[in-house]
Amino acid sequence: MNRQAPNGAGMPRAAAAALLAIAAAVVLASAARAAEQPYSFGVLSQRSIALTAQYWNPILRYVSRKSGVPLELRMAKTVQEGDAAAEKGAYDFFYTNHFFTPERDRLGFQVIARPAGPGIRGQIVVPRDSPIKSLQELNGKEVAFPSSDAFGAYWLPMDALLKAKVSVKPVFTGNQEAGAAQLRLNRVAAAGFNDLVVERYGQRENWEYRVLWESVIYNDLCIMAHPKVPKEKIAAVRTAFDNMRSDPEGRKVLEDTAAVLKITGELGFIAAENRDYDNYRAFFKHTLVKDSK
């Protein structure tokens, strides 16, 4: 009996060691899963989901590798669904220009980057062969807009129409390219756009249009971070986007994705701040458009 005691006493120690090893493995596995949990990256619904994914997924894969912050593309079916999701905190990062209204500005999203280039204009366009030559001729007619949230494609055009005392019948199409399709089928008399979206659509689809009205320049859509995202993660993502243009690998990704949307001119993104969008905030203080929310 005494000779067996050492072996009998050794069994509990071995079992305890095994249990500790299992527990450590479980903790490490849980930590690994937590580390791999991606941060959601919402993108405004300007185009089809397939085309948006074709453009953004290679960029997000690059930024994820360079920043060490895994990013996962998220999109809603419509602009308003995406904005509503963002308001509820569904996105850690959001590519948009819809969060500068007084109500949304208070949510605390932080501007971190924007596309390089001069910016965007709101436009009202008609097919090239349309008989309509002025805003006044749109009075009483149907005009397509992506949603009542769209800054360049609704707020700016509708403000111009109201100031010109032109009353139109809005037709909301879900995204800007769907509005272009309605216009091409002559189901609406005109449509509101962000000038870069309609220009690239026209190039891809070999479609000619005419601009009835356009706004002054505003900065393009921006990448915003939700206040719940840790500061170090935000800084890493911002740096990765900002460095894409100067990194050969990043430049190649930008060139390949630019070809998808027919983007010309400056490529890539530059670091940006909230103050870069103060002209949006000024617009909302003076617009004649009433917030639909």
Describe the structure.
The protein has ten helices and eleven strands. The protein has 293 residues and is of the alpha/beta class. The protein folds into two domains: 36-117 and 220-286, D-Maltodextrin-Binding Protein, domain 2 (3-Layer(aba) Sandwich), CATH 3.40.190; 122-214, 3-Layer(aba) Sandwich (D-Maltodextrin-Binding Protein, domain 2). The strands form two sheets. Strands 2-1-3-10-4-11 form a six-stranded mixed beta sheet. Helix 2 packs across helix 8 (231-243) and helix 2 (49-67) runs antiparallel to helix 9 (248-261).
Characteristics:
5-stranded mixed β-sheet, D-Maltodextrin-Binding Protein, domain 2, 293 residues, single chain, 6-stranded mixed β-sheet, disordered N terminus, alpha/beta
CATH topology of the largest domain: D-Maltodextrin-Binding Protein, domain 2
Write the CATH architecture name of the largest domain.
3-Layer(aba) Sandwich
Question: Mind telling me the CATH superfamily name of the largest domain?
Answer: Periplasmic binding protein-like II
Helix content: 40-55%
Count of discrete structural domains: 2
Number of helices: 10
Summarize, please:
By secondary structure, the chain is of the alpha/beta class.
Map the helices and strands.
Blueprint: H1 5-36, E1 39-43, H2 49-67, E2 71-74, H3 79-87, E3 93-96, H4 102-105, E4 110-115, E5 122-127, E6 142-145, H5 151-163, E7 169-172, H6 176-184, E8 190-194, H7 195-205, E9 209-214, E10 222-225, H8 231-243, H9 248-261, E11 269-271, H10 278-286
Helix pairs in contact: 2-8, 2-9
